[in-house]
User: What shape does this take?
Amino acid sequence: MGEGAEGTIRLGRLAGFPVEMSWSVLVIVWLVTWGTSSSVLPQTAPGYAVGEYWLAGLAAALLFFASLVAHEVAHALTARRAGLEVTGLTLWLFGGVAMLRGEPRSPQEDLRIAVAGPLTSLGLALGFGAVTVLVEPVGTPLVVAALAWLSLVNLMLGVFNLLPGAPLDGGRVLRAVLWRRRGDRAAATIAAARAGRRTGGVLIGLGLLEVLLGAVLGGVWMSLIGWFVLAAATQEESAARTTAALEGLRVGEVMTAAPTSLPDDLTVRELVDVRLPWRAHSAYPTVGTDGHPTGLLVLERLATVPPGAEASTTVREVATPLAAVAVAAPEEPLTDAVGRLDPRGDGRLLVVDHGRLAGIVTPGDLTRLVRLRGLPVPPSPVSRG
Assistant: This one.
């Protein structure tokens, strides 16, 4: 366990996927523990000591957390079988996200990836339900109540995720169906995102109604989930419109040819003293002594060099290696290449032709292209879950 990206906690690897957890997950674990130990379990299994309720509540919370992990792993495994690269799993306040690089190649693949998570949750609901029935004649009422709650919450998780609207899994199902029917993935994505915005609005409205009826905690929670769905759906619609703007273009038509590059054996001191004062870019491709590209230096990373080590640290040591940067060939469809963008590359795409650096595509290039095509400029591309 260690520090992950952007303040997340790195938990390790599961089924070959890096798993990280946002600090907000601790809030979920606390709320579930508190809710089950102070309300759910005492009502369904009265007569136990406070400490026993808290112990059972903590166990239920951890098993619920494991259920969320299983949900996302199911998405990731299905995506990997479809040939998509899965860069990791991130768990946070509202559940989890399987970070995929690229998009499914067909509606059938899209559908299989989408339903894998909810089917896993529904399967866990059946499993916990079956264990509840088997344990009830011999187990303590407290254990039986905790197992029954886990069955119910996994059922709710599976059903909720099938609501028809992106970014929920049901939105992916809707997209796959519309994609199959219309033959246009971008249009299907926009329609699913619009459905997600409506779903988010309904959830916010139901949450506010709950607050008015006195269920403050549940109402606030539902409103927060609705706000998240609404915001994510809006972002996804903008990203889909960008994809539509890029359709039919090749990488070579958009790239900046022959970009300025840096020798990767240059020291940070030489870079700062000699190369940077007259440049205005925030990232540069790096090349080896043979002229082949080796990575991308995002200038912000220079701040990670310890004071006094500038003269002994090379650009190669600070730059993001080529294996972790999005790379494309000039003749590749732009939409396919953009789908592989990685935040570690600062949103940039290196264009390589027969082993040589041919160009670079920057976020500014994409923004100008979208504006020229008369479409709204979206937020930075994000991976989906």
Summary: The chain is about 55% helix and 15% strand.
